[in-house]
Amino acid sequence: MAESKDPIIVLMTCKDVTEAEKIAGELVKDGLAACVNIINKVRSVYRWQGEICRDTEALCVIKTVKGNFGTLKDKIKSLHSYTVPEVIGLPIDIGSEKYLKWLVKETKILAKV
């Protein structure tokens, strides 16, 4: 069973880099994430309300711990412009030991999984 300090990556898309930077800054400031990488101009093709949509978005790769997922998801929903923002958590199975220790150290565990 995963523990609350287990490192995870959360993927989130935003309408643009401005929104992504705003949300990323809040997540890091609040200790919900140790780091957020923003990849601008990602092409997304998806179905929304029965229509096929094609948009350019900014992708955020958020590094945090499992114990923060619920609080992080709620924070994203409160700041995000989308009705249904993408918030997908993925486990980090293996990585640089020093980096993962830093990630856990820089992330406050604020519960609500």
List the defining traits of the structure above.
four-stranded antiparallel β-sheet, 113 residues, alpha+beta, 36% strand, 3 helices, Alpha-Beta Plaits, single chain, 30% helix
Describe the model.
With 113 residues, the protein is an alpha+beta fold. The protein has one domain: Alpha-Beta Plaits (2-Layer Sandwich), CATH 3.30.70. It is 30% helix and 36% strand. The chain contains three helices and four strands, in the order E-H-E-E-H-E-H. Strands 2-3-1-4 form a four-stranded antiparallel beta sheet. Strand 2 and strand 3 form a beta hairpin. 26% of the residues are buried.
**What is the CATH architecture annotation?**
2-Layer Sandwich
Instruction: Give the N-terminus to C-terminus distance in angstroms.
Output: 13 Å
Strand order of the largest sheet: 2-3-1-4
Task: Give the number of helices.
Answer: 3
Helix fraction, binned, reads 25-40%
Average pLDDT reading: 94
Care to give the gist of this entry?
This protein has 113 residues and is α+β, with helices and mostly antiparallel strands. Helix content is 30%, strand content 36%. The chain has three helices and four strands; from the N terminus they run βαββαβα.
